[in-house]
Design brief:
Spore Coat Polysaccharide Biosynthesis Protein SpsA, Chain A; globular; alpha/beta; 293 residues; 11 helices
Length: 293
């Protein structure tokens, strides 16, 4: 049995108090002892009454909840604030649009039996239904490839690192102001120091995927900006520069063949919607990459 380590959970939030409530409720149900973890909510300048919600919610929880408010600086800056204030040997990250499994913290703890493990992540499971959500699941958007059992990088919706390793590498890159890019950059810095990343399939987080085209586009636009930063810093080993998209790309023969591909993979119901979403995704990535940071 693994030694029980004290774990600090860091949750950055911005104007999502209703979703944050669902996230916090999942920590009331943890199998991990409440004496061995704390939850730090870092409010990145919310204007929706998040602070008042936290104060009123404290009487409904059985764990240690600490709230910090800061001027809006993006999720990387918010997570770094959490790392600075954390008391745990391990720092676990999830997002305010997630719900963690009841054994999440226990599995985080179990992932660090060897000293060479600098960070560990797990599975991110679809919590919502709908075409966009189904597409994101189909392309494994939030589960990076893990050849030989080691992930290329960890997604901070479901990630845990040793706090001393986070401090050693300087935490998240705050120049990346939007969600997208700060996750792989941190993982690259950790691996550069000689530490390994671990994938634990029993470590599960449930995510509320985007459900409208505007949010979907914005997400991938931000990913494109982050990809530009990663490519400039780390080369094309993690992300490759996306193809510049024009209207003619949508009408090209190779693009239209994607409809047949999705028909084979997902059936007639999803063939056209998935083709459309992939085109929106690639357009957003391309334009975000061109903007960069």
């Amino acid at each position: 049995m693994s030694e029980l380590k004290f774990i600090s959970v860091v949750i950055p939030t911005f104007n999502r108090k209703s979703m944050l409530k669902l996230c916090l409720e999942s920590f009331n149900k943890q199998s991990y002892p409440v004496t061995h973890f704390e939850v730090l909510v870092i409010d990145d300048g919310s204007s929706d009454g998040t602070e008042e919600f936290i104060e009123g919610y404290r009487e409904h929880i059985n764990f240690k909840l600490i709230y910090y408010r800061q001027k809006n600086g993006g999720p990387a800056a918010a997570r770094n604030r959490g790392v600075k204030e954390a008391k745990g040997a391990l720092v676990a990250f999830t997002d305010d649009d997630c719900v963690v499994d009841e054994h999440w913290l226990a599995e985080c703890n179990r992932s660090f039996n060897e000293s060479y493990i600098g960070g560990a992540g797990g599975v991110i499971v679809q919590k919502t239904s709908g075409t966009i959500s189904d597409y994101l699941v189909h392309i494994k958007a939030l589960n990076p490839p893990a050849p030989n059992g080691e992930p290329y990088y960890l997604v901070t919706a479901n990630a845990c690192y040793r706090r001393d390793v986070l401090l050693e590498v300087g935490g998240f890159e705050e120049a990346i102001k939007n969600p997208g890019g700060e996750d792989p950059d941190l993982s690259m810095k950790v691996k550069e120091k000689g530490y390994k990343l671990r994938f634990n399939p029993d470590n599960i987080v449930y995510h509320f995927h985007k459900s409208d085209i505007r949010s979907f586009y914005k997400t991938y636009f931000n990913y494109g900006r982050g990809s530009h930063y990663i490519c400039n810093k780390w080369g094309n080993g993690v992300f490759k520069e996306p193809e510049k998209i024009t209207f003619l790309n949508f009408l090209s023969l190779s693009n239209l063949k994607l409809i047949r591909k999705y028909y084979r993979e997902a059936g007639v119901k999803y063939a056209l919607p998935f083709w459309f979403l992939q085109n929106i995704q690639m357009l957003a990535l391309s334009r975000g990459f061109q903007k960069g940071y």
